[in-house]
Amino acid sequence: MSDDGEPIGEAEDTKLYIADPDDYARTRKLKALSDAKAHVRKLRNDRPGRATDDEWSGLNARLAEAVASYGHELLPLLEEAEDNGILGDSDYYTNTGRKLDVRNLIYTDGRVKQLGKDDEFTHPPPSEAMAVFRHLQKLERKLGLGLELEEQTDDEWAIQT
């Protein structure tokens, strides 16, 4: 590391410097997105086999709120992509089950409108929260931030020794 930049912290008597502030901001954003996704996966995987109705309600609320938190991290990038014509209004709707605008779940911190009641909100069932989560991941990939799989066109196997 060079001393060209502002110190960002210290690690055992060593100062850390930022050489490229834009690269640092991008790395921090990608880490925040990764941490938010990991939190959703942890909540989804740590569900108990049995619980009372109240406990399920709380677990479902925390899952939906975690999905909304991931959406909050992604939202500025989505808005920028929309301004640049990469995304359109139709890109924000899930394509499974009830068509949900993922922005609504984000803006209401994990809540959706109750069916038949326009002014009341509730936490969605896990299937809807996870549909929004998967759709947000799809949008992240569309922006070029997620994992992309490439098709292998040759039949040769590369063996590294």
Descriptive overview:
With 161 residues, the chain is mostly helical. The chain is 49% helix and 11% strand. The relative contact order is 0.11. The protein is globular and about 50 Å long. It has a domain of 105 residues. It has 4 helices and 4 strands.
Counting DSSP H or I runs of 4 or more residues, the number of helices is 4
- Cα shape: globular
The number of distinct β-strands equals 4
Overall pLDDT score: 82
**Structural class of the secondary structure composition?**
mainly alpha
Secondary-structure element sequence?
A: EEHHHEEH
Are there runs of 5+ residues with pLDDT below 50, and where? none
Main sheet strand line-up: 1-2
**Termini gap:** 32 Å
Main beta-sheet strand count, sense and barrel state: 2 strands, antiparallel
Rg over CA atoms, rounded to whole Å, is 20 Å
Proportion in β-strands: 5-15%
Helix content: 40-55%
Features:
single chain, two-stranded antiparallel sheet, 4 helices, 49% helix
Q: Quick gist of this model?
A:
By secondary structure, the protein is mainly α. Helices cover 49% and strands 11% of the residues.
Question: Which helices and strands occur, and which strands form pairs?
Answer:
Blueprint: E1 7-11, E2 14-17, H1 21-45, H2 53-83, H3 102-107, E3 112-114, E4 117-122, H4 126-142
Helix pairs in contact: 1-2, 2-4
